[in-house]
């Protein structure tokens, strides 16, 4: 799994094959003892990346208020996308059609982090919380995509700018949440 993640990070999903098992110093057939095929291994990688995303999002520091927690989730999401670009793109692009239920389960804690903070800001109204949580998640995902396209420049400065935009956009959405419907 670790080698598969390294290879995907280096080459992308399209450049990944089970034949790369040579890098492990094992026979090309060795991965087939653990995985039925390439898609099954990719699904396992996608699930692992989902777990890493959850860890990164939950580790992002925020204040005690629900708004600060929601901002922290959005920042953590953008930071993870920046740090693990190819894996992030693989999970949210290439891998999604392979087996959505498994990837959905892996990403559920991140969705729950968005939802929980949004619920606290929405006075317990599940419809309002869904609207706010979805808007913030979509914004964070969009900013991650713009970062990957180079819209903020290159390097750490670009990451910092995208994270600042995630902070500002989340605060704007919280302030205008009544308009979300």
Structural summary, described in words:
- With 181 residues, this protein is mainly alpha-helical.
- It has one domain (2-176): Tetracycline Repressor, domain 2 (Orthogonal Bundle), CATH 1.10.357.10.
- It contains seven helices and no strands.
- The chain has helices at residues 2-11, 38-59, 66-83, 85-94, 100-121, 126-148, 155-175.
- Helix 3 packs antiparallel against helix 7.
- The model has no long low-confidence stretch (mean pLDDT 85).
- Order of SSEs: HHHHHHH
> What's the CATH superfamily, by name?
Tetracycline Repressor, domain 2
CATH architecture: Orthogonal Bundle
Poorly predicted runs of 5 or more residues: none
Q: Helix segment count?
A: 7
pLDDT average, as an integer? 85
Number of domains: 1
- Rg, Å, rounded: 18 Å
Q: Tell me the CATH topology.
A: Tetracycline Repressor, domain 2
Portion of residues within helices = 55-70%
Give me the count of strands.
0
Reported for the largest beta sheet, the result is: none
Class from helix and strand fractions: mainly alpha
């Amino acid at each position: 799994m670790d080698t598969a993640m390294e290879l995907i990070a280096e080459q992308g999903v399209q450049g990944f094959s089970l034949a790369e098992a040579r890098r492990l110093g094992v026979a090309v057939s060795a991965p087939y003892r653990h995985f039925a095929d390439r898609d099954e291994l990719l699904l396992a990688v996608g699930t692992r990346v989902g777990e890493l995303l959850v860890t990164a999002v939950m580790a992002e520091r925020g204040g005690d208020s629900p708004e600060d927690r929601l901002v922290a989730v959005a920042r953590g999401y953008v930071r993870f996308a920046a740090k693990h670009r190819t894996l992030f793109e693989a999970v949210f692009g290439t891998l999604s059609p392979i087996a959505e239920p498994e990837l959905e389960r892996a990403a559920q804690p991140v969705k729950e982090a968005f939802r929980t903070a949004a619920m606290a800001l929405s006075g317990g109204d599940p419809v309002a919380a869904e609207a706010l949580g979805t808007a913030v998640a979509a914004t964070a995902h969009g900013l991650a995509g713009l970062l990957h396209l180079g819209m903020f420049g290159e390097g750490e400065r670009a990451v910092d700018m995208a994270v600042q935009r995630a902070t500002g956009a989340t605060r704007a959405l919280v302030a205008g949440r009544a308009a979300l419907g």
